[in-house]
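Reopening this ticket.

The earlier resolution said the output was attached, but the attachment link was broken on my side. Pasting everything inline this time so it's all in one place.
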Amino acid sequence: MSSKRSAARTGQPNSLSGERSPRGTWMEALGTLRKFHRRSALKQAGPGVVTGAADDDPSGIATYSQAGAQFGFDMLWTVVLSYPMMVGIQMVSARIGRVTGQGLAANMRLLYPRWLLTGIVALLVAANTINVAADIAAMGEALQLLVGGGQHGHAIVFGLVSLVLQVFIPYQRYVRILRWLTLSLFAYVAVVFMVRVPWERVLVHALLPHVALERDFAMVLVAVFGTTISPYLFFWQASQEVEDMRAQPRAEPLLNARLAQARLHLRRIRIDTYVGMGFSNLIAFFIVLSTAVTLHAAGVHHIETSAQAAEALRPLAGDLAFLLFSLGIVGTGMLAVPVLAGSAAYAVADCFEWRQGLDRRLGEAKRFYAIIALATLGGVALDFTPMDPIRALLWSAVINGVIAVPIMTVMMLMAREAKVMGPFVITRRLQVLGWLATAAMLTAVLTMLYYAR
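Inline output:
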């Protein structure tokens, strides 16, 4: 064992884990915010912010829109409840990546049978490709509503632009583009303030769960949890922590880092994840709310795509609300497609020990970029098939649900393992949040299977 690692083991457990009381966390966050007068907040945003924003992709927007349109305010509590669980499991994935200096699949490869890892990665690639297809189709439909033209032509353009950005734009510049794209999500906040909202009722429904023991409610509930807690987000955030480490001169995995440096990064991961997942769930909350006070109130209870939600808003909330909702679909799609394709590439490269990284040139990581191209262009190609986009999303949700539970279980076990995490094993609080998230996903999968019979 290295002297650095031995020195780290002599620290106090709470200091090593980077955990603080809730008051301490908010004080640290406020301290970080005070520094933003020197640099833009977007420049300081870490992998957690981009990961959280990518969760609100066009497919997710369709799910949240359906929840608000069909059940009104009765689904608001699900977004509030999922926040701490999402924070817990995403923080675990980020810590695994930064502590070990490797992605999730690379760590799994060292501990678990190859057949298990290969099966999980294959299902992840399939689910992500289907999700890319659904997102690009939604973007094409939204742009068609705005400017006309052919939906398929728009889909091809979006797919090619996304691919070019990932392959040919240097990593640091590419990440800045993704950070700016997160601003598109504020369109859904703006929509809410264009209509009359009964805020007292909203607060009651957000804090007091309402559950209806019926098939439709259960399926939408499962869809909301499945959209919020998704496997591709685990792989992306862990791998982005590794990418950020490589981009910093003299940076190294926390297992080999000085204790002071390790504490700094664990604190940064915690604040970044709290903020990123909070941003994600806040936007999801406003999407549910905006469709509840407009579509549901007007008797529009069935929405299949995000573009349909945008079109249905126009006569109820006006042209500006329609414009913002539609532009939000395009912006979030441009953010989410690279995350979906990139997370698949990271997982495959880790599984087969290929050279990888968005910081590498095309010639240095050909197979890594080939997977990105396969997932992106494969998604575009699926839009030209007779495939029903709603059924495709259902199958994507099923696959994600099936692989989420074993992935989350493996993550939780790895994060508690000293031979993986050294002195940085997760604390009891993170264990509770992570296992609660895992249990929630298992319940969601079982419920979906029960009602799908």
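Reporter confirms the inline version is readable. Confidence is low (pLDDT under 50) at residues 1-42. The chain is about 75% helix and 0% strand.
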